[in-house]
Amino acid sequence: MMTNQMYFAQQPEAAHDRQQINFSWPRGSLNLTTDAGVFSKHRVDYGSAVLIKQAGELTDLPAGKILDLGCGYGPIGLFAAKNWPDRQVDLTDINERALALAKHNQTANGIKNANVFASNIYEQIEDSYALILTNPPIRAGKEVVSAILAEAKNHLVANGQILCVIQKKQGEPSAKRLLTQTFGNCQILKRDKGYYVLQSRVLA
C-alpha cells in the first residue's frame, strides 16, 4: 500500500532523496527541488507536461483565481503563476512533504502570486476559481479521483473550467462520463501518447 499510495500520504515515510530538476515550456521555465515520497521525483511526469502545454493555450478564462489541486512539488501551479502573473494561484495537496517542496520551489523561482496550503481534496477550499488544473492521483483510488472531478463544479465561477489529464488505461472514459454528467459538457482538448486532457465548463 505504501509503495503505491506514498505520494498521497499526509506524511510520507520514505528516506529523503532530494534532487534538482529543470522544467521548461515555450515561454518559461522552472528550477524544481523534488524528493522521495512525492509523485514523479525524477522529472515532471509526461501527463503534467501535456496538461501544462494545453493550459498555456487557453485564451478565454473569466476573471478569477486558479487552483492546482494535488500540486505535488508544484510544477503545474507554479507554471500557472508564471503564465498568468496577474492572477492568484492556489496550490494544494495532502502530502506535507510535497507542500514543503512546493513552497520552497515558489520561493526559489521568485514567484509572488502563489499560495501553497494543505487540503484533502476540497476540504479546505473556500474560494471559487476561474480555472482548476489537476493531474489526479490515480493510485489513491477511484473514489478520490471521482471526488476531485465531481466536486470541482462547486468551486468554479460562471464560465469557469476544469482541465484534468488522465490516461485512457487509467480511467479516461469513466472520467469523461462523470464530467459530462456533472457539468453537462466535456471535451477532449488533447490526446498525446495515451494521455487525455479533458475540459468541462460551468455554463453561465
The helicity comes to 25-40%
Strand content: 25-35%
What is the H level of CATH, i.e. the homologous superfamily?
Vaccinia Virus protein VP39
CATH class division: Alpha Beta
Which CATH architecture is right? 3-Layer(aba) Sandwich
SS-based structural class?
alpha/beta
Q: Tell me the Rg in angstroms.
A: 16 Å
Largest sheet: 7 strands, mixed
Low-confidence region ranges: 1-7
Output the strand order for the largest sheet.
5-4-3-6-7-9-8
Mean residue pLDDT: 89
Please report the number of helical segments: 6
Number of domains: 1
Number of strands: 9
Cα separation of the termini: 42 Å
Shape: globular
At CATH level 3, the topology is Rossmann fold
Helix and strand run: HEEHEHEHEEHEHEE
Describe the 3D structure.
- The chain is α/β, with parallel strands linked by helices.
- It has one domain (2-201): Rossmann fold (3-Layer(aba) Sandwich), CATH 3.40.50.
- 28% of the residues lie in helices and 29% in strands.
- It has 6 helices and 9 strands; from the N terminus they run H-E-E-H-E-H-E-H-E-E-H-E-H-E-E.
- It has a 7-stranded mixed β-sheet with strand order 5-4-3-6-7-9-8, with helices on both faces.
- Strand 4 (89-93), helix 4 and strand 5 (114-118) form a beta-alpha-beta unit.
- Helix 2 (46-55) runs parallel beside helix 3 (75-83) and helix 5 (142-150) runs parallel beside helix 6 (172-183).
- The protein starts with a helix and ends with a strand.
